[in-house]
Design a protein that fits this description.
3 helices, single chain, seven-stranded antiparallel β-sheet, globular, 4% helix, 31 strands, mainly beta
C-alpha cells in the first residue's frame, strides 16, 4: 500500500520514501539504550546502555565491535575526545566518576572521581587550552585538568539543584554553559583562576527544570532548551534574550501529523547547511517525528518533515543522524527502551517499504566547499 493512501494528512512534495534497514537487539531482558554518538571519522558509534556499559558498533554495517565495562551506576553521558585523541571515549555516571576508554582495546585508561556521594549528570571537554573537564555534579559545577586529573575549581554558588547539562560553547571554548533543575542557565568564563564571584558572566532564568540544551545558528549564538515538562525555548545566550517559548509544544507537534499524540521530545537537530532546526518528538509506541521549528518571524512548530515508524515498540531515547560523507544511504540510527538499535535507510529503493517517509531537506547532501572551518554543534 502506498504511503499516500495510508495517510490522509498531506505529505510535503519533497519527500523520499525510506525504510528500516535493520534492527539490532543490544541486550536481552529489560535493558535499554540511553545514547548513541559517532566517532569523528564515523568508523564506529558508541552506545550507552542501562547495563552500565558502553557498546561499540559499525554505523554502516551494524557490526558489533566490543564493550567498555566499569561503571557501577547509570551512565548519563558519553563523549568521544575528537581529532586529537580519536580512539578515546569518555563516560560519566551516577557512580561519581568520569572514565576514559581506549576503544581499540576497550580498556579503561583513566578515571576522575568526584566522590562517593556525587552523581555526575553531564560533562564536557574544552577550555581556552582544551585541557579542562567540566562536570555537573548535583548542584555543583566541578572542573579538572584532564592532563593530571587534578580538580581546579568547584562552582557551588550558582545553582541550587542538580546540574543536568554542561557544555563548552562551540567556537568560544573558553566559555562554559551549565543548566539545572533549578531552571537557570549560567554562562562562565573559564580563563584564569575560576570561581563563582569573578567568572559567572550571566544567568538566564528559563523558569522550569531543564533537561537538555544545545547550540545552533551561524555563530552558535542561539540556544535551544528542552525542559522536563516537554516545553521548548529558544534563547540568544549572548544577549540573554528569550526569542520564543513554546509552552504547548506537545500539542503543536501533535497537530502537525495525524498519528498518536506526541508524548515526549528526544532532542533537537540543527542543519547548518539548511539553516534549519528540527524538534524530534516521539510516541510511547516508538514512532518518531522531525518537526521544523520556526523561530524567526512566524513562531510555530511545523508539520513533520520525517516520520520514523515501525522500528521501535517503546520510548526512543536517542537519535543519531548520519554524516554526509559516510552515510551510504543511511538516514540515521535510533535507540530506545525496547533495547533496539534501528538503522533507517533514506534511499528510494529501501529493501523494506513501511509507513516511514522523509523530506529531502533532511537527507544529508555532499559538503559544500567552505573557507571557514566549521565544527558540529552539540
Amino acid at each position: 500500500m502506498d504511503v499516500e493512501e495510508q495517510r490522509p494528512f498531506p505529505i510535503p512534495n519533497n519527500v523520499k520514501r525510506f525504510g528500516l534497514k535493520n534492527s539490532i537487539q543490544t541486550n536481552f531482558g529489560d535493558d535499554y539504550v540511553f545514547q548513541i554518538i559517532p566517532k569523528d571519522d564515523w568508523s564506529s558509534m558508541a552506545v550507552s546502555l542501562s547495563t552500565n556499559a558502553v557498546k561499540l558498533y559499525s554505523p554502516v554495517m551494524g557490526q558489533y565491535y566490543g564493550e567498555c565495562k566499569g561503571h557501577t551506576a547509570t551512565i548519563n553521558q558519553i563523549l568521544f575526545s575528537g581529532h586529537s585523541n580519536p580512539n578515546i571515549l569518555s563516560s560519566c555516571s551516577s557512580d561519581g566518576t568520569i572514565r576514559t576508554w581506549d576503544t581499540r582495546t576497550f580498556q579503561q585508561v583513566s578515571i576522575i572521581n568526584a566522590g562517593p556521594s556525587q552523581e555526575i549528570f553531564s560533562f564536557s571537554i574544552g577550555g581556552p587550552s582544551g585541557n579542562l573537564v567540566a562536570a555537573g555534579c548535583d548542584s555543583q559545577v566541578l572542573l579538572w585538568d584532564w592532563r593530571n586529573n587534578k580538580q581546579i575549581a568547584c562552582l557551588e554558588d550558582s545553582h541550587v539543584d542538580d546540574v543536568t547539562q554542561v557544555h563548552f560553547i562551540p567556537e568560544e571554548r573558553g566559555k562554559l554553559i551549565s543548566a539545572s533543575v533549578d531552571g537557570l542557565v549560567c554562562i562562565f568564563d573559564t580563563t584564569g583562576d575560576i570561581n563563582d564571584d569573578d567568572h559567572l558572566e550571566s544567568v538566564i532564568n528559563v523558569g522550569t527544570s531543564i533537561a537538555k540544551v544545545g547550540f545552533f545558528g551561524e555563530s552558535y549564538q542561539k540556544l535551544w532548551c528542552l525542559t522536563h515538562i516537554e516545553t521548548l525555548g529558544i534563547w540568544d545566550w549572548k544577549e540573554g534574550r528569550n526569542e520564543v517559548n513554546f509552552s504547548d509544544t506537545r500539542t503543536l507537534a501533535s497537530e502537525s501529523w495525524n498519528l498518536d499524540h506526541v508524548d515526549y521530545f528526544v532532542d533537537c537537530h540543527y542543519s547548518r547547511e539548511a539553516e534549519k532546526l528540527w524538534l524530534i518528538g516521539g510516541t510511547n509506541a516508538g514512532t518518531l517525528g522531525f518537526f521544523p521549528v520556526n523561530y524567526s518571524e512566524t513562531t510555530t512548530i511545523g508539520g513533520a518533515e520525517a516520520i520514523l515508524e515501525g522500528g521501535h515498540t517503546d520510548v526512543v531515547r536517542s537519535v543519531l543522524p548520519m554524516s554526509r560523507v559516510h552515510s551510504s544511504g543511511i538516514f540515521g540510527w535510533t535507540g530506545g527502551e525496547d533495547g533496539r538499535l534501528c538503522c533507517w535507510l533514506s534511499d528510494d529503493d529501501s529493501p523494506q517499504k513501511n509507513q516511514s517517509w522523509i523530506s529531502s531537506s533532511l537527507v544529508m547532501k555532499p559538503e559544500r566547499t567552505c573557507k571557514k572551518n566549521r565544527h558540529h554543534p552539540y
